[in-house]
Amino acid sequence: MSTAKLKQQPIIQMDKQVIEDVLLFAANQLLLAVHKQRKVILVDCGSGNVLAELVLQEQPEFLCKINANLAATTFMKNTIQFIKVNKNTLKADSTTNVDFDAYGIAPYRNNIVVSSSSAVKIISKDGTPIHMMDNTTAGREVFKNPRWITTTTDGSIYVTDWGTDNITRLDSSLTILQTFSGAILNGPCELRCLNNDQLVVCCYRNNTIVLVRPSTSSMTVLLDKQSGIEGPKYLCFCKEQKKMYVARADKILVYKFT
């Protein structure tokens, strides 16, 4: 992947709907969180057409896919909202209340992993605590502002931290396995796994998309400002179509791996 070439494709324009997060839900569908308008939108990747909209009770922050028909988003007010996705329809499902501010979210085996103001927690879908790791349990400052989370099929959990400019790799008991840091990770935001040994991460303050390889601890710039990347925060990747989607304000930049 580090030697792959990326060719920019036509931009998907979202008509002044400022995107808070972007999630590939199916091979040809994107789910978008539109924070200010308190809604999520299902979009066709090819045409850019809006397939469905769902207005929520609160402002959605982060998104994740739970299974083939279920997504979840976090609200700042201690709530996780589950959303049913059936073909071209969106429907609010159950909510789970938690006793912390919920930020990044990802599925983890039969549970979910969530970041809060200074901790990472594994909880059940109904909010029951399973594991937690914060600076107190770690015995040192690990997190300042943990935000985006992704998981891999080998059981690893990766967390970006806006305050430390680090990426932390954790296992199923939230033990620290690896830490990535350096000037290349300036303002790390959303990260997605391409496979167990390749992750892509938005580096907001560097105006770059970076490839991280845990096996070698290597980090390589894939896209930069010359490629149209400016202040990136949200991205997703479609393996089938070999496309990367980078959300920026009211548009989605599309890149094809060749």
Question: What is the fold's blueprint, element by element?
Answer:
Layout (H helix, E strand, L loop, with lengths): L5 E8 L7 E6 L2 E6 L4 E6 L5 E6 L4 E8 L2 E6 L3 E8 L2 E9 L7 E4 L2 E5 L3 E5 L5 E6 H4 L7 E6 L5 E5 L4 E5 L5 E5 L7 E8 L2 E6 L4 E6 L4 E6 L10 E5 L4 E6 L2 E7 L1
Antiparallel strand pairs: 1-24, 2-3, 3-4, 4-5, 6-7, 7-8, 8-9, 10-11, 11-12, 12-13, 14-15, 15-16, 16-17, 18-19, 19-20, 20-21, 22-23, 23-24
Describe the structure.
- By secondary structure, the chain is mainly β.
- It has a single domain (6-257), classed as TolB, C-terminal domain (Neuraminidase, 6 Propeller).
- It is built from one helix and 24 strands.
- The strands form six sheets. Strands 1-24-23-22 form a four-stranded antiparallel beta sheet, with no helix packed on it. The chain has a four-stranded antiparallel beta sheet with strand order 2-3-4-5, with no helix packed on it.
- A hairpin with a 3-residue loop joins strand 7 and strand 8.
- The longest helix is centred in the middle third of the chain and has 4 residues, at 135-138.
- The model has no long low-confidence stretch (mean pLDDT 93).
What brief labels describe this structure?
4-stranded antiparallel beta sheet; globular; 258 residues; mainly beta; Neuraminidase; 24 strands
